[in-house]
Amino acid sequence: MASSNVPAGIAWPVQFCVFITLSTYVASLITSNVSHVDRLWTFLPTIYTAYYALLPLWPHSQPFYLFPYAPKALGHDIFRDFSPRAVLMLSLVVLWMFRLSYNTWRRGLFSLSDEDYRWAVLRTKVPPWFFQVVNISFIAITQNILLLMLALPSASAAILQPHDALSAFDYLLAGFALIVLGIEFTADNQQFAYHSYKHAYLAREKGSKSVQPYDANKQWPGSRLNWTPADAKRGFITRGLWAWSRHPNFACEQTFWWIITLFPLLARSPPNLPSPSPDMLLKAITHPSSHLKPLILHWFPEILHLIPAASLSLLFFSSTLFTESISKNKYYEAYSAYQQRVGMFLPKGTVEKALFIKLFKSDQEARRIDNLVWGNVENVKKMQ
């Protein structure tokens, strides 16, 4: 049974989160592999979201340890029916889970012997004792807490808001979420197709017959791009969606969870984003010293509901910096050019970088960057 000091609305999720945190940490010590949370990443937000979306199904007392239950303290109204909004959110999260699970499976990360390459790199950069500090504080504890937090918007919809019919905003957000998942799936497939081509090409160049030849027909639609030997030699993907964003999959991942966060906040009932009067906004703009603070206080309680998505974005930004430092160390000249030419997440950054190069770089330098990113590296050598 969860501690009575834990609020009823998060009693079981906290209990389950503590169990998973301890289990993954102990497993990392036993196996010397810290990717156990990575393997569970695809399932945990779905489990927590399902708990809230399906609250009427759970017993009021816990029959045995870890079994989901919904304390009576939540209130009888919550158990009378399901929240349509929470169920819709669960449906989208389940689709998200299928996409991520499929991508994780084909990358081989579900194998208990596989570990994210970034952890291996980090081990070489820090002392063993510090890596264990990172393991328990960030990998085990922080990540598991974050995965629980991602379900809190569904808790708001199921517990804090009336179970009203879906609104136009709900349908609009669901449509956006499906589009984002489709784009993310395409980005995943393009990256997988590229690496399949790259490994097949480089193996053939070395005379190896252990790798099957690349077959574009085996790839998903949208990822059958015209890869070239120059792409393989470059070492990283720069075509398709990756020509507009250095990490389109990461951008979509963050966007998806921001959309999930907005479901309860755009609803008609609290906790939703309040609509300050035009007079309040005008005064905050014209007299910020005296009226900006009241506006912030007006918004502050609901802004707290943005913390899960904001925390995820912070995690992605910091981890992407580390990921790119590895790529840049491996492909320094080409990846530096890629960073100069293409935005990290948003296509807007790519347009801005293109404009900057057009205005402030010489034509020769612009061609050099484009050749490094999309052309033939041999052409760059001829230009030098």
What does this protein structure show overall?
The chain has helices at residues 11-31, 36-40, 44-53, 76-80, 84-106, 117-125, 128-149, 152-160, 168-205, 229-234, 248-265, 278-286, 288-303, 307-330, 332-341, 347-360, 363-373, 377-383. With 384 residues, the chain is an all-alpha fold. The protein has 2 domains: 1-166, no CATH class; 167-383, no CATH class. Helix 3 (44-53) packs antiparallel against helix 5 (84-106), helix 3 (44-53) packs parallel to helix 8 (152-160) and helix 11 runs antiparallel to helix 14. The longest helix is centred in the middle third of the chain and has 38 residues, at 168-205. The chain is globular. The N and C termini lie far apart (70 Å). The mean pLDDT is 91. Pfam families: DUF1295. InterPro entries: UstE-like. This is DUF1295-domain-containing protein. Keywords: Membrane, Transmembrane, Transmembrane helix.
Secondary-structure topology with pairs:
Elements: H1 11-31, H2 36-40, H3 44-53, H4 76-80, H5 84-106, H6 117-125, H7 128-149, H8 152-160, H9 168-205, H10 229-234, H11 248-265, H12 278-286, H13 288-303, H14 307-330, H15 332-341, H16 347-360, H17 363-373, H18 377-383
